[in-house]
Amino acid sequence: MLSYILRRLLLMIPTLLGITIVVFATMALSPGGITAQSLVDDFGMNPQEKAALEAYYNKRYGLDKPAPVQYLRWLNNVSPIGFEVSEEGTLGRFSWRKGIDLGESFLYGRPVSQILAERVPITLLLNVLTIPIIYLISIAVGVRAATDRGGRFDITSSIVMLALWSIPTMLTGVLLIGFFASEQYWHWFPPSGLSSLEAARMPFLPHWERFADVARLLGGMLAGFAAGAALAQWRNRTGRIIVAVLVGLLCATGMIDALPHEFSWVAWFWTALLLGGVFYATAGSDYPALRLVAFAFFGLCLGGALGAQWGASGFVRGFLLDRLWHLVLPVFCLAYGGFAFLARLTRSAVLENLQADYARTARAKGVPEKEVLWAHVFRNSLLPLITVFAALLPGLLGGSVIVETLFSIDGMGKLAVEAVKGRDREMVLSITLISGFLTLVGYLLADLLYAAADPRVSYD
Amino acid sequence: MTSLQKAENRHEGYAARLLRKTFSRWSARIGAAWIALLAVVAVFAPFLANSRPLWVSVGGHGYSPLLQGLTWADIGWLAAFFGALLLWSLPLRFGQRLLGLLAIILIASLIGKAALKPRTIEIYEQYREQAAQYDEVIYTLVPYSPRDYQRDRGDTGFQPPSREHWFGTEENGADTLSRMIHASRVALSIGFVATGIALVIGVFIGGLMGYFSGLFDIIGMRVVEIFEAIPTLFLLLTFVAFFGRNLYIMMVIIGLTSWTGYTRYLRAEFLKLRDQDYVQAARAAGLPLGSILFRHMLPNGVAPVLVGASFGVASAILAEATLSFLGLGLVDAPSWGQMLFQAVRFSSFNWWMAVFPGGAIFFTVFAYNLIGDALRDAIDPHLSTVEE
Amino acid sequence: MSMLEVDGLKTWLKSGGKQIKAVDDVSFTIQRGETFCLVGESGSGKSVTALSIIRLLPERIASHPGGAIHFDFRRRDGETERVDMLRLDEARLCQIRGLRIAMIFQEPMTSLNPVFTIAEQIIEALRLHNPEMPYAAARERALEALRQVQIKDAEAKLDDYPHRLSGGQRQRVMIAMAMACQPDLLIADEPTTALDVTVQAEILRLMKTLQKDRRMGILFITHDFGVVAQMADRVAVMRRGKIVEQGELDTLLASPRHDYTRALLDALPENLPRPDHPPPASENPYIEVRDIKVWFPVYKGVFRRHVSDIKAVDGVNLQIRRGEIVALVGESGCGKTTLGRAILQLIRPTAGDVRIAGDSIIGLNNRQLRPYRRRMQIIFQDPLSSLNPRLTIATTLIEPMAVHGIGESTEERIEIARQTLETVQLKGDHLWRYPHEFSGGQRQRIGIARALVLDPGFIVCDEVTSALDVSVQAEILQMLLQLRRDRQLALLFITHDIGVVEYISDRTLVMQQGRVVEQGDTAQVCGAPTQPYTQKLIAAVPRMPENVYRRAGACQ
User: Fold this and answer.
1) What domains sit in chain A, N to C, each tagged with a CATH number?
2) Which of A353, A368, C127, C309 supports an S-S bond with A377, CB 3.0-4.6 Å?
3) In this complex, do C388 and B300 lie within 8 Å of one another by their Cβ atoms?
4) Where are the domains of chain C?
5) Mind listing the pLDDT tens digit for each residue in B158-216?
6) Which residues partner with C353 through β-bridges?
7) Alpha helices by DSSP H, C38-89
8) Alpha carbon of A231 to those of A219, A248, B192: distances in Å?
9) C119 to chain B, minimum CA–CA distance in Å?
10) Could B286 and C392 be called an inter-chain contact, meaning their C-beta atoms sit closer than 8 Å?
């Protein structure tokens, strides 16, 4: 096993080299290339100032050298073993412990490593929150779809998942921001950033003025939760549907009422249709777990919202809650696209395993079907999900780009866009290196996890 | 056609069976219907949305400003459409049909470019200003061109949907619906061309890797890993930002960044197929390498690649929209992503710019995904929702 | 009262929108302590019958429109209840499955859950039906069960994962798991079909022993009459969902009453009329193989160094003359398939020499090899994967002809293809069909036609009848003999079935672990083997008793 890990780590090096070469070549081969010229063009300066700025750039960043030399110099800077470089940019002795120098950004004028240290954790936070959500929901849907094969849930969920996958992230983001985070419509969520302006001065946890407020809030949440759960468990399907649709209509009315402009019947119609439709589908489903989770959660939120309405005076949000509140929309945008793929994969894996010979043996032993599913089949079905985890990473890092741009979150994705637009050589290369490295480490982790999970696999 | 082909057509081959099974699902039919609609809209775009009237009669003298204003691109699209119809009715092999279509498009475009006069600056307002003088006039369905900024109507900017403009107007005053109709061309062409490029590269490399293995495989896998480890969007951004925002360049770039999936599929298939008995039999019979690769292995291994291609077309359309959204999209040609971009750029939320072009993107991507999904189920019925 | 009584069972399966009558009014009984064999060819419904007894068929596919299955259920409280398996609910079925009726399946490689250890899987069975049993006691019982099925190092194997065990060991584990709760009835669905013949012999012996110890009833499903002869007390023959004949073993074998039974017995290789063995065409060997070696390198370590080799074929000498059929026998993994492919240069030998009609074909590149490829062809085992599903039969047959320049025009080649199809007893207009329109036996004939179309002198037959029903096998074997006579073919017949070897071949080679341990005339090698391995192999083959029915006029 150790030799396998060593081999993989060694193989990472040529891949990383290759990545950086590809990106560097793209920059160098483009019209304009990586010269001081392209950086200087925008500013409306007279020729002398331009020349001076060019000379400065050339000296500082070595932009007048030919592309391969630039690349080698950069490579030398980045590798922990190499030639030391002095202030003027001349080469010094060869050293084994030079340290990694990612260079300075053209755009920001600060060391790249500093900027990255600020930004990378944010992107990681977004992704680390998103991945478990995607997995949980996909597995739940996938398993149910497999056991319900050919049934209503299976067909509906597969179409719904496919539809979700088809909605472009930016459309969702735009719609969400436009409708739920803007002045014109419901202003439930903040439109941008990760924290409010006052957040720095806020205490960490939320804080209420009076105990009665807390009681109202918690009471409301509890009541809502219980009501939702009770509705979900109610056996009478028609009754469920009627109550649920009524609640939906009431909510729609409430929502339209809360809008800043005057009451519009057209808007009410569409909102009522949407909400009513969703409630109808959920209430009418014969998947009790889905109903329970959906209605209980909705009841919780509604009850909490109503409870918090009264006595909202001395409420201080607190840093934690504020951060979470800001994260809801971005994480949702990032997560929903991943459901379809993973749910589909889970479904195929579970189906295949349900039909497998060892499942038949388990049934022949007298194991009840439910236990066959969860004790035997489930573990085997998880294996392809682990492998796929590795492929998810580049997708998520890419998806963050859109989400971060939309929500003005200062993460690595947004940085990447700015760096590319601004032709910031150091930044672009460093981001490439980091994301490439993270992805390859992700692959390695996935393979190791897989080896741990599947006893048939051993790396020698 | 030889007696061999005539006789073979009587029985249903694998491809025909696959298509039949795929489109027996209503989801695939809906998807195909939407795409067909889109194709028709794209081909006949100048006839659907144009400031130039279709037919004008002044003082007994009638002419068609619309036909006079057709560009070589319009001719190309029309030729593609009618050429495809013609070729499909002829009993030819798939490869021959494809080549024929490409040839028709190429020739028609060249003729169009040579024959039509170069366009001068378009003055769209003239048709509205002269409207009073016309005896008879027939307008197109949407009487606005995509670049008609309605300067004769004052300083129009964003306007919500109204009776005049069914989908509202965009930031420069041009009609949204008209721009959407013409943008369908961009969406369709980018989807097909980019995926086509990615397919050719991916199949070529993947096939060679799968069949020959050895050093070729090792190097190939490193190359694949390199392209996969860079987040696609980032690679796209880099390419586009540095190389420019021309439609054709974007097609090539999107193609160049999405071939790795096809390579993996085909390599996996070829590795399996190599050991299949009929491939061994082909080798034992001394059949030439080309025949083994293209006649025996490729048609049998191409199925998951096709599924991937269907999803790939959807991704290509999404990629273009994303790039436009990030401000790196096409500059002058109308595109759905660009319109989406306008929805949030300004302080007010212009919902019609998000809902309608966004909806168009959604439906198109959804349609391709539905077809890909149905195709996947047709290929491997063990796991489909329909009981076999 | 019999322990199990199947009364007019009907099982219908939904497939592709149609209902198939997989089991159509089947009735039989099984007593305590007796072995009842259900014999039949593929598609006869024997497996479906077995699965119906404990209702293992998925509900959405299977329905039981008629009949009943009565079983004496010895409940845990000591009372015996006679239940109808078809009418029980899921909960009660789970009580019976594994505890009173156990089932083992055909494929040992996939029948065990790969992510659980052997111990976990056996203990699961134990504790499911004995919930009050503590873990330590269960583990002890599991260990004991493994010892009873004669697994060596049972203690160590307990904590191993299934993939570490061989096929035979896994099947023993399956038996141990099935027997752990001491069932009254064991249903065995072709348990030894996928195993080597020596392993099969041991497993069958084991099952007989266990049955005697526990007075357990066995319902044994098989297609192999030799196994039936060894195991059964009573037999039933099934065909297309119905039982055509059933009775005591001796009676049925000695004087079968139904035509189908007789046809099945006739088709056994030992009952086929002995073919005449014409002398080979010439004394010079057509195919000559000298000291051929096929080694596969093993790479280990960080830098993937070549540390050792897997010696699939390790020095084999072989000669075949035109008109001669040489059999290559051995168990799985002995290298016989590799040898066949190496002779044909589909796998490049690591060392050694191969000559066709005197010309050496080692070390030639593809272009140089091509003219020789005409002379040597191969027929494969699996009819499903031996034909390209995308091409019509015509294209499959014609393309090789075009490459080698046989026939002047496409029309002429079509004619040759048509005639070849008729030689293998298929109709000419089958040329225009696709492989999926044919049955397994028909596809094998097409495979033979493909080999014949180039008019070769040497054909490697790689387990060509192993996947076929015995009646189809008989036809194919007879066809091959006819072809040998007409075309003076040299055949290398690779197989693991000694009965077929005795029927068809002139000479026999026995392989073990890459080497030939014995070779010579078939009569001598199979009748009086000199090497211990060969003796073990021949002894393990399940034989029919002496008084078995033979067709009038058949010779021994």
Assistant:
1) 17-101 (no CATH), 115-201+316-460 (1.10.3720.10), 208-312 (no CATH)
2) A353
3) yes
4) 4-266, 285-375+456-540
5) 777 777 788 888 877 788 888 889 889 888 888 889 999 999 999 989 988 888 888 88
6) C290
7) 46-53
8) 18, 13, 49
9) 32
10) no
